[in-house]
Structure formats: C-alpha cells, structure tokens
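Side project, low priority. Logging it here so it doesn't get lost.
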Amino acid sequence: MAPPLPEMGAPVPGRRLVICACVIGSVIEYYDFVIYAYFSGSIAQTFFPSGLAFSPLALVLATFGLTMIGRPLGAVVLGTYADRRGRLPTMILCIRLMTLGSLLLALTPGYDTIGVLAPVAIIGARLLHGFSLGGSSAAPRRA
C-alpha cells in the first residue's frame, strides 16, 4: 500500500531545496544561451572563416538557430529516459550534457589553429546545448 499523500498546502520536507536546485540548474542552462548571443561578434571572428560569401556573424547566428533543432530531439529522447529512470537522474544528465557542451565551446581552438574543425565543434556544442535544454524542459512536464 502506498504512503498517504500530504494534504494540499501542507509543507513538504526538502521542497525548498528542490525548488532552489531546479532554479539554479535552469539559470545555468539559459545563461549559456544569453552569453553565446551576447558574444556572437567575437565568436564569429574567432571560429568562422572570413572569406566566405556569408558573413561570419550570419553563420554564428545560424548556429544559434541550429540549437533549436536539438530541442525536440532532446525532449523525445530525454523525456523517454525520464519516464524510465526518473526525473532527478534526467535533470542531472541534462546539466552534465550542458556542461559538456559549454566545455567544448570554451576549449575549442580558433579557426586559425584547427581550421574547419572549429566551426564543426561549435555547431556540435550548440546542438548538444539544444538537446540538453529540450530534455530538461520536457522531462519534468511529461505525464
């Protein structure tokens, strides 16, 4: 027999800690999106070639848009994972994936150093960000 549910409005032990953890995790995830958009000019000069028909800034903003492709995929894959493993392990996985993408962005050498691998690494990191953000947004809401 399942334990009884607390009454509506009754305090739940550890509830504030869970709420704080969720808020901090979400702030960290969205912080990366804001920072990427803010520094898009510098990212364009560092990671994308300048001698193309497209502006490097346009390529950076297109890469920012590609992030949205990973969100639905992350929602499906990580939402299914959440159904099987639980919400907390899924949220931890999403934060780790976001961290991995951020590390890839931070540690990728510029275009002058590794050539075409620089934009490929940036695109991969941004897709990983979108994937993890889609999973963290979908996992807590799936029934």
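Brief comment: The chain has a mean pLDDT of 82.
Revisit when time allows.
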